[in-house]
Design goal:
Layout: H1 3-69, E1 84-85, H2 89-104, E2 107-123, E3 129-143, H3 145-156, E4 162-170, E5 179-190
Parallel strand pairs: 1-5
Antiparallel strand pairs: 2-3, 3-5, 4-5
Helix pairs in contact: 2-3
Length: 191
């Protein structure tokens, strides 16, 4: 058998192998790689959507918990804090604290003013300067740890513009399980 006849089948098989490799490469470049990129992109989107779904579930559970804790109130209604006139802001704050303290079993032992009322200028929602009268009060209250926490949470949820500035809790002999807390409140009103 001549050498030229022996090379022809190898040449055909070699050409077939080259064509197979080129066609596989082309198929991979045209079909497989874009699909793999699309799959990775979709998996990333699925992860993002799962995270968002988890956040939504958490938000819905928080709203349901809030609705159970505060029956009769609509969680979608705007409960923005509002400033009272400076002449009534402290009285309105003290009036609002009575039912909160009674509801949580927290007793007020002492109320002290801190400094003198001051005017503080803050930006309003439109960015204009808004002068507010600021009064600081220090309370000494007594109650269980949970009662104090619920009391402070409800004070922060008041519709009046009040900020809890500081809280110092300590245990005193003879009143356990109750604790004593010194709480600094900052109350804002319109001058």
């Amino acid at each position: 058998m001549p050498i030229s006849e022996m090379r022809r089948p190898f040449l055909r098989w070699g050409l077939f192998a080259v064509l197979l490799a080129v066609s596989l490469g082309a198929a991979r470049a045209v079909y497989v790689d874009p699909r793999e990129r699309e799959i990775r992109k979709l998996r990333d989107e699925v992860g993002t959507l799962r995270g968002q779904l988890g956040d939504l579930r958490g938000g819905i559970e928080a709203m349901e918990t809030w609705s159970r804790e505060k029956p009769g109130l609509d969680p979608t209604v705007d409960r923005a804090r509002r400033t009272r006139p400076a002449s009534t802001m402290v009285a309105a704050f003290l009036d609002a604290l009575g039912p909160i303290g009674t509801g949580h079993g927290v007793a007020t032992q002492r109320i002290d003013p801190v400094g003198i009322p001051e005017i503080e200028v803050v930006p309003d929602p439109a960015g204009a300067a808004l002068p507010l009268r600021r009064t600081d009060l220090r309370f000494r209250i007594r109650g269980s740890y949970r009662a104090l926490g619920g009391y402070l949470r409800d004070v922060e949820e008041l519709d009046q513009y009040v900020v809890v500035r500081s809280v110092s809790i300590r245990s005193e002999p003879g009143i356990y399980p109750d604790l004593v807390a010194d709480v600094g409140f900052r109350i804002y009103g319109t001058p």
